[in-house]
Design a protein that fits this description.
It is built from 10 helices and 6 strands, in the order H-H-H-H-H-H-H-E-E-E-E-E-E-H-H-H. By secondary structure, it is of the alpha+beta class. The protein has a domain of 219 residues: Arylsulfatase, C-terminal domain (2-Layer Sandwich). The strands form 2 sheets. The chain has a 4-stranded antiparallel beta sheet. Strands 5-6 form a two-stranded antiparallel sheet. Strand 1 and strand 2 form a beta hairpin. The protein is extended and about 80 Å long. The two termini are 43 Å apart.
């Protein structure tokens, strides 16, 4: 489901439930006559049935996603080939309609570049790198939630990342999707593909059926990375001094401890089987699930726009609209406070008055 629509839906839910959050607000049902309460209970049973039908709807949506994923894949495969340099697009395929302003800006940049090249004398051949260098690494740097995971020692490895794919569970299998990270041969690990499976469910919770809002991720599984000797960036070696209690002698030992790295993504935290946990674990799992959804719904389908930054600008614009609305509400509250304090509004200059 599109993130913007989800956000609107959540906001609408907050508006509907907001009155119940105020202290002193008795539940509506407690104020109803017994006969009306009885009918309300019948409506609740109908609502539960609606939730189960909605769950089936999302299962069919998952089937549609699988179907259309197969249709997208040839185009995404060609994107991979262009990025890696395996295929050179034709002149016709490279044509793109742009605004006149952009064209003029590009022409000016090319003019300046030509001037610099002329000053170099004989001039070297124009640089023509293979494919689109650091395509996925640039995306990682552009997207906040990924850049926060990215460490300096991860960057040389991610330069070898050639493609990220999403694969959906087969018909008849439990609902899930798999992220596949395809790497070219490198000196860091022997894997050519690293995977992360996100398991989902689309069914109302028996204890709280009214909380159902669509499929949710309930678990995830990573994969083993076969690191070459001395190349594992998810651990670091430290030296520690130990003093013998009896003899008083000191020795230095080395041990490996966990190290911050994007590649910890493939060794996710696991929720306890008994359902117990703490807030930190819940936060970690929620963040992991959010990243998985973002790869599936945004980054993989629109990778080029995250590479150029255009998709990020769209996301930021949406966030800013929400903030502006909030700012307006705050401003209204401030105006009300000013009236309450009895402060007399100063007359505005003529040029500031609204027409």
């Amino acid at each position: 489901m599109d993130e913007k629509k989800t956000g609107v839906r959540e906001k609408a839910g907050e508006l509907i439930t907001q009155p119940d959050k105020h202290e002193g607000f008795p539940p509506v049902q407690s104020m109803l006559p017994k006969a009306v309460k009885r009918r309300v209970n019948a409506l609740k049973r109908l609502q539960v049935q609606c939730a189960h039908i909605e769950a089936k709807f999302y299962e069919e949506v998952h089937d549609l996603e699988r179907k259309y994923s197969a249709l997208y894949q040839p185009l995404l495969n060609k994107r991979r080939d262009v990025v890696s340099g395996a295929v050179e697009p034709t002149d016709e395929e490279c044509e793109w309609q742009s605004d006149r302003e952009d064209e003029e800006e590009l022409a000016e940049e090319l003019k300046k570049k030509a001037t610099v090249e002329e000053k170099k004398g004989d001039g070297a051949a124009e640089e023509n790198p293979k494919g689109i260098p650091e395509f996925w690494l640039t995306i990682f740097k552009n997207v906040d939630m990924l850049s926060e995971m990215l460490q300096e020692h991860d960057e040389p490895i991610l330069r070898h990342l050639q493609d990220v794919k999403v694969k959906f569970s087969e018909p008849g299998q439990a609902m899930s999707f798999t992220l596949e990270f395809h790497f070219e041969p490198n000196s860091y690990f022997s894997n050519t593909v690293l995977t992360k499976v996100y398991k989902m469910k689309s069914e109302p919770d028996a204890a709280d059926p009214f909380s159902f809002e669509g499929p949710e991720i309930v678990d995830c599984e990573g994969c083993q990375i076969d690191w070459h000797k001395g190349k594992d960036v998810t651990v670091k070696t430290i030296k520690k001094k130990q003093k013998h209690k009896g003899r008083g002698t000191v020795r230095t030992i080395t041990k490996q401890v966990p190290n911050d790295s994007f590649f910890n993504f493939f060794n996710p935290a696991k929720a306890p089987a008994d359902g117990t946990g703490d807030e930190d674990l819940d936060f970690t799992l929620a963040a992991d699930f959010e990243i998985g959804h973002f790869f599936r719904e945004r980054i993989v389908p629109r990778a080029v726009l995250y590479f150029t930054g255009e998709a990020i600008e769209d996301d930021d614009s949406f966030d800013e609209e929400g903030l502006e609305e909030g700012d307006e509400e705050e401003q209204d509250e401030e105006d009300d406070d000013d009236d309450y304090d009895g402060k007399k509004e100063e007359p505005q200059p003529a040029e500031c008055k609204q027409q």
